[in-house]
Structures are given as structure tokens and as C-alpha cells.
Design goal:
Blueprint (H helix, E strand, L loop, with lengths): L8 H20 L3 H4 L8 H7 L2 H7 L19 E5 L5 E4 L3 E2 L7 E2 L7 E6 L6 E6 L5 E6 L9 E4 L4 E5 L1
Antiparallel strand pairs: 1-2, 1-9, 3-4, 4-8, 5-6, 6-7, 7-8
């Protein structure tokens, strides 16, 4: 038989404080990218009509696909990776590398391809990457990538398409 810890005054106050802070944490989870104006701005209904369910979930609801699930993870031809929502150029295949994470990774975006914002969805700040044209969520950038930038732009393959050179 499992026994639960005895409720003490300290535990009770901790639970109350945690419950009171949940709305603030949830509010931090909303993306600053969503609140900004972008060159391409569509209604929710228009995005739903334009995108597949998976694309909508990733690009508009900031979902994350399972690692190793995107065919773009294994794309090695010369070309350009585009936003799946608006076809805006994001990354050159010349900057793609195998990070071993299971998501398409790049060490540098194309000039004007992406924007960044801070998200707190998992309780600590991360740098979110979004399309500079439509604001669609692409993934996150980390400081553990290869030279020359030291960056790892870890992108959802479902948020992109590929145009061969």
C-alpha cells in the first residue's frame, strides 16, 4: 500500500503558490511571433484551408513533430528549404548538417528568412524560430552547433518544403 506524504502547512502553501502561478506560466507559453504583424497575414480559417493538419499544428500551434519522422531530415540535394505555409526561402542546403537529433538542422538561415522570439512553454526560456514572412513556427535555435556560427537551427521538417536547385 502506498502512503501519501502527510499534508503539512509548508506543502499546502507550496501547492497554493504553484496553482496561483500556473496562469502566469501558461500566458508565457504564447508566442510573441503570433502577436506581431507579418507581411503575410491570414485568418485562422484561411491557414486551416491552406495547410495540412500536421502543418497547421506545427506552424500555427507551435507543435513539434516526432524526431526522425520527416523526409527532409534525409534531404541532401542542393537547393533551398522553404516555409511550408508561404514558400518563403529559409535555409540553403549548403548550411544543413546532420545534428543527430532527428530534425533537419542548419547552422545559418538565409538573410531575411527567419525571425526569433523567446518562448517559455517548457518553463525556461528558449529561442523560437519563425518564418519572417508569415510568422509560422519552425523550431528552435541552440548554441551547440558547428562552426562557423556555433548555432543549431533545429527545425520541424513538417514546417518546410524543399526546392531543388
Amino acid at each position: 500500500m502506498t502512503t501519501l506524504p502527510r499534508p503539512t502547512r509548508r506543502r499546502l502553501l507550496g501547492w497554493i503558490a504553484m496553482g496561483a502561478s500556473l496562469p502566469a506560466i501558461a500566458a508565457c507559453g504564447s508566442s510573441p511571433a503570433e502577436a506581431r504583424n507579418f507581411p503575410l497575414s491570414l485568418s485562422d480559417a484561411q491557414w486551416r484551408k491552406r495547410l495540412t493538419k500536421t502543418q497547421y499544428w506545427i506552424l500555427r500551434e507551435e507543435g513539434t513533430e516526432r524526431p526522425f519522422s520527416s523526409p527532409l531530415n534525409d534531404e541532401h540535394r542542393a537547393g533551398t528549404f522553404l516555409c511550408a505555409a508561404c514558400a518563403h526561402p529559409l535555409y540553403s542546403s549548403k548550411t544543413k548538417y546532420d545534428s543527430g537529433t532527428g530534425w533537419p538542422s542548419f547552422w545559418q538561415p538565409l538573410r531575411g528568412g527567419v525571425g526569433t522570439s523567446t518562448d517559455y512553454k517548457i518553463g525556461y526560456p528558449r529561442t523560437e524560430v519563425h518564418c519572417a514572412n508569415c510568422g509560422g513556427h519552425l523550431g528552435h535555435v541552440f548554441d551547440d552547433g558547428p562552426k562557423p556560427t556555433g548555432k543549431r537551427y533545429c527545425m520541424n521538417g513538417g514546417a518546410m518544403s524543399f526546392r531543388p536547385a
